[in-house]
Design goal:
single chain; mainly alpha; 59% helix
Length: 161
Amino acid sequence: MRPETVGAQVTSREVERQLNRLRAAESMAEARNAAEGGDLAAAVSILENCALLLASTASVQDGDRLCVSLCAELKEMQERMANRRVYEVSGRAYMLSGLSSHSWQRATARGDSTDTDSLVQSYQTPSMVNMVTQSQTMIFGAPTNQRKLRSTLSFPGPQPR
């Protein structure tokens, strides 16, 4: 038997995280279409509205790493649409990379993907971090002078050692 009235519904954090990811990916696709059509102002507005919507969710307010990184990424995309030249030089590629990453839940190699302070590491696995660190050691020499990647998890869990 189902109740006749339903009380306040509580949304699962993981469900909200995934809804935020999908909203961001859909907004990125919509903004990309606007930008490719020459309307950078509309593209920026689409991304800004999505960032505001995400910022109002409990996940972002509680500091969920994926959701906070989505907001930061949307802001970065807006900045890379400052004008046509900036969009064509770096904005388009950054947008396509983010769109691909969030649509497929896969890490992508962006200019900031090895920056340990970057929040755009949502889908990196510990194995990926190790592989990139090893390749940097092979290319650049001993990692003593190099930045080391830190492991990130897309959801709370034990940190690898």
